[in-house]
Amino acid sequence: MFQFRVSWFRRHSDRGFGGMENPGYCTGSFDGLHHPSDDDDDEMVDIAGATLDFSSTDDVPPLSTGGYEEYSSSSSRAAGMNGNGPSKLVDPLEDPLPGVGTYEDFNTIDWVREKSKDRDRHREITNKSRQSTVALLHSVSDAFSGWLLMLLVGLMSGALAGGIDIAAHWLTDMKGGVCLIGFWFNHEHCCWKSNEATFQDRDRCPQWQSWAELITGTSEGAFAYIVNYLMYIFWALLFSFLAVTLVRAFAPYACGSGIPEIKTILSGFIIRGYLGKWTLIIKTITLVLAVSSGLSLGKEGPLVHVACCCANILCHLFTKYRKNEAKRREVLSAAAAVGVSVAFGAPIGGVLFSLEEVSYYFPLKTLWRSFFAALVAAFTLRSINPFGNSRLVLFYVEFHAPWHLVELAPFVLLGIFGGLWGALFIRANIAWCRRRKTTRLGHYPVIEVLVVAALTALLAYPNSYTRMSGAELISELFNDCSLLDSSQLCGYKQPANTSETGVGNSLADRPAGAGLYTALWQLALALVFKMMITVITFGMKVPSGLFIPSMAVGAIAGRLLGVGMEQLAYYNHDSFIFKGWCSPGADCITPGLYAMVGAAACLGGVTRMTVSLVVIMFELTGGLEYIVPLMAATMTSKWVADAFGREGIYEAHIRLNGYPFLEPKEEFEHSSLTVDVMRPKRSDPALAVLTQEGMTVGQVEALVESTHYSGFPVVVSQESQRLVGFVLRRDLLISIDNARKRQEGVVSASQVVFTEHAPSVAADAPPPLRLRGIMDLSPFTVTDHTPMDITVDIFRKLGLRQCLVTHNGRLLGIITKKDILKHMAQIANRDPDSILFN
């Protein structure tokens, strides 16, 4: 492992404007790149600023790999078999070279080229399939490989999600005690095996003992409470320490949610190792530890990252996905759907989440395969049955009472609260994360995690609603009270006639009792605690999702409002608002429904999801009749949050990290032209170009060495500047290096030609090097007076990495995706240098 230094970035980031820039690496957004010192407990910073390991073989290997050297040496021997001279001129078009057409780390893929390569491959297979039975079978297997890959992704992701759920539940319960008949049983499973447990006290059984009972022999009294309190803090610190240490030591990319980076990768950016096997292993382990530590985070976002890691690893089993970055991103889009499917038990919601929130390119074929993969993953998770209730999620509920039109007003009120909370959370969290990057706080991630974990445990334990896990809290808040429910939230005064019931199995509205008032105070304190602690927790160097904490905030607010509405209806059932539909003894208001609507509103305010969020919540509850309240709250939440800023939390983190992500939802409203954005500017050096003939190998190598551009336009001549094509720096270097080994006579004085026919050379001159095969003969061009809004649309819809600018056929300059992002940042009065990568 090695560490990039800030000096490397400074040396490579300030470049001229001749061609397409090579990726810069870490400016102010990654100020944690520093020389290790004794007073720092960690050198790990945000994703691109971590101690990275580029020796992974998960992705396309670099230039100097054994396979390439072996290929080159064997080809060189073959070329020299017939005497000293070469048997023929080497043409990369006729004899493809390993490495040509691949991309370096932190670069953007060329979607057009990748799709063209796949069409050529498919056309070749189709033509061959008509010639022989073997080729036909190969064609069938090629068509079937995509579905097989989806099956494997669904099976692997579902199995991992089931294991994570079981392990997290077990370790969470371990903070409170241990099962005497088997330490591997969680609290619920331990008491299932007990004959002494009753339905009312089903969580109490002699087989499960708290740490106070084990250490002091009693579970009552102040000393026993202190022992349990200290053990809770001890386990929370231990789990969080293990999580951050494993992330720091083995897989820096395993921290955070992963969704911002996955969105960037799906847009065409390459982050090698982010979806590798070590990231998968460490993220799976540390996700269990982080959730079990009691930190205010969820596992739903990281499960999307886990599913994408599974997909990326399995892609290497199939040639067409291993060798084509665009095809691989189709699989990753489906994997994102799988992640949400196993996180919420919502296969359809997962497909819509991938389509609405994370995917950049989502053809109809990917929609079908996403649906199939989400189905397989949900079936696998259901077969494992991690919660022991034959459900896919922990907080599955069913409400029996219908909602009424008057209740739309409080539902909209919850939507307003969700939008305000979402806007506030995004601003506060981004400000905190920016402070983490720009101060010494970012140099001590281990200490930060331990301090936050200790603070969370210290404040959470006294309140039963913050002590329980986020999923259990949401389950409690969604719950609809029944006659045998012993929860404090069901602490109503019992009516004189206990036969009064509402619709179905639900109870009629009742006056609040002392237990309910106590629960409401605890929930109000839990709401304030969750809102504050989640701001500083999300973004730490442990796996951390945002779905569950956001839903918990909304569910608490919704339950409080629901109980308030319930009591209002009970004491004012004769008023004009409730008269006619809320008669005495009826079950008019369902507080659990308000909790569900509030959860959707807050999650929508933070992420700005709409359609997929409503479907996910509908799949959680199984109630079709509650779609309208969910839609009203979610849409209101989005409108209110958008009034304060159109970015969701994931887009905000993408911008904070400086990723080259061209947001498809953002409108470009400025009236600038391409000549205003292109490089070089009037005061800059001329564009660095190659000519189609007349340059020697030495001159080309000198040009490549003296610049750091990722590609060069090819023109007819320096005088005419008529455009011929575009060649990538990586392909150029590989081809020249390979030609020196395979084609005898290629020296620095050899001519480099990009023409269709090699020019005539003198008898004593070295043979020319033909590189037409690596040149893009149809690079995308726009004129210098093309409006920038059209150019931005071209980049978005075609996935371009660069576009050449011409005037009357003459080459003027170049526009890259980074140039567009910098220009958009300037228009929005943001620092254009915050776009770190090309």
Question: Could you characterize what this model shows?
Answer:
The strands form 4 sheets. Strands 1, 4, 6 and 7 form a 4-stranded mixed beta sheet that branches. With 838 residues, the protein is mainly alpha-helical. A hairpin with a 2-residue loop joins strand 11 (802-807) and strand 12 (810-816). Among the domains are: 153-177 and 253-384, Clc chloride channel (Orthogonal Bundle); 408-492 and 509-657, Orthogonal Bundle (Clc chloride channel); 674-828, CBS-domain. Helix 15 packs across helix 23 (627-644). The protein is elongated, with a radius of gyration of 31 Å. Helices cover 52% and strands 5% of the residues. Residues 678-742, 775-832 form the CBS domain.
Helix and strand layout, with pairings?
Elements: H1 6-13, E1 20-21, H2 66-79, H3 111-129, H4 133-174, E2 177-179, H5 187-192, E3 208-210, H6 211-216, H7 222-250, H8 259-266, H9 277-292, H10 300-315, H11 319-322, H12 325-344, H13 347-358, H14 364-384, H15 408-438, H16 445-460, H17 464-467, H18 470-478, H19 514-537, H20 547-571, H21 591-607, H22 611-621, H23 627-644, H24 649-657, H25 674-677, E4 690-691, E5 695-696, H26 697-706, E6 709-715, E7 723-728, H27 729-742, E8 751-753, E9 769-770, E10 781-783, H28 788-798, E11 802-807, E12 810-816, H29 817-827
Parallel strand pairs: 4-6, 8-9, 10-11
Antiparallel strand pairs: 1-6, 2-3, 5-8, 6-7, 11-12
Helix pairs in contact: 3-4, 4-9, 4-10, 4-12, 4-14, 7-9, 7-16, 8-24, 9-10, 10-12, 12-13, 12-14, 13-14, 13-22, 15-19, 15-20, 15-21, 15-23, 15-24, 16-19, 18-20, 19-20, 20-21, 21-23, 22-23
